[in-house]
TrEMBL record:
EC number: 3.6.4.-
Similarity comment: family membership: Belongs to the DEAD box helicase family.
Species this protein is from: Sphingobacterium tabacisoli
Name used for this protein in its record: DEAD/DEAH box helicase
Residue ranges of domain Helicase ATP-binding in the record: 34-205
Amino acid sequence: MQVSFEDFKLNKQILDAIAEAGYKEPTEIQQKAITPILAGQDVMGIAQTGTGKTAAFVLPLLMKLKYAQGMDPRALILSPTRELAMQIEEHIRLFSTNLDLRTVLLYGGLGPKTQKEQLEKGCDIIVATPGRFLDLYLEGYINMKSLKFLVMDEADKMMDMGFISKIHRVLEVVPRKRQNLLFSATMSELVRKIAGDFLAFPTVIEVTEQATPAKTVSQTLYRVPNLKTKINLLQHLFKDDEAFHRVIVFCKTKEVADNVFGFLDRKYGEDNVRVIHANKGQNTRINSINAFKSGEIRFLVATDVAARGLDVSNVSHVINFDVPIVIEDYVHRIGRTGRAFNKGDAITFANPAEEYYVEKIEKLIRQSIPVSELPEDVFVEKTPFDERQTIAREIDNQKKKDNPDFKGAFHEKKFVIKQKEALKSGFKPKKTTAKSSGVKKKGKKFKNS
Ligand code: AMP
């Protein structure tokens, strides 16, 4: 049965705004969530970004709030990051153009003055990150007595970011009688726990299996021995500027992000690339995201936290320059492409130490990521000594993590024993080098695999 937005009990103003937004048919999460939310049920939605989950709760919420009323908020939407909070607020604005509702957006990193002024004017909806919300609540700027709806978006990220005690604090200050909605991309133990504290007999809706990447995203894995070769591969891929027209490059640290940004900046010019990470000021980040959204720039280099919730349509490619160590981030990262009904490509570069996380990701998503051979004209650089050492050490640590009895190729005693054994057998030792400590061997093994 084909469901259309007209099938929901939404009013004309909202249906008009949906049509203006260009949404033709509801996505799966919208089909499943809108009716129970309108019926007043608590809902737990397991859905990734890119599935249309924001509209799935914003639309029925707007329908229930209808028009401005009193001074105090009737809905509170909590988001782990300011970027996601901004996107939720954008959705609200988009769908409430024909309604008379007041929304206030609260997040940290900026002075609270404007936010306080907005609160003093009265509002119907607050979209907030937990910390700033609590600060302003404790200062007496927010009265919770009229609250009817509490939404927690990306609950898994909230838990990852350590917001659990803040969430409990919020739950202490909201009225008991209210409707609760919780959305999460993955279902971890902590999410289950917070859901238990938060929801009453919820309707559980799962749109894809747990942590399954959207089907519209095609995935590729390249095994790349080192950082310089990763850069060469990036350069090779980006030659195709028609296909790679709007690309997010994910890096695991600020340092790598700055490096990759430096390279792209030199190669394609500063008008084509921006970088976002935690050391960039709030305004710089917003400007960069907007420039990327509007298509002004071709490349956005980002770390995971900075890119959380980033909602840009028509992202052609997500490149995982590094494999995410928080493996759930893989699903979030590649969810930036192939949004709603579009197609997208996610390409992951993995060095030998990162294979460990690839395996874990494959278990999580219950699929193997198709491997592609490095294209012939990508120059494979020799791994410099330091990088070889780092990679070998990481692999050692991974083995130790999985097997506490593992002593490690780098283990000094073992090395000395080996040397003694060699001496006994009449072998004259060379000076210690990375080669003799087995590092080279690992590099080779990787190359052949
Ligand atoms: P979300 O999963 O909420 O982050 O939404 C992902 C993207 O899909 C956003 O850009 C939405 O505007 C878009 N979107 C959500 N629902 C629909 C729909 N029914 N039709 C077309 N686009 C949609």
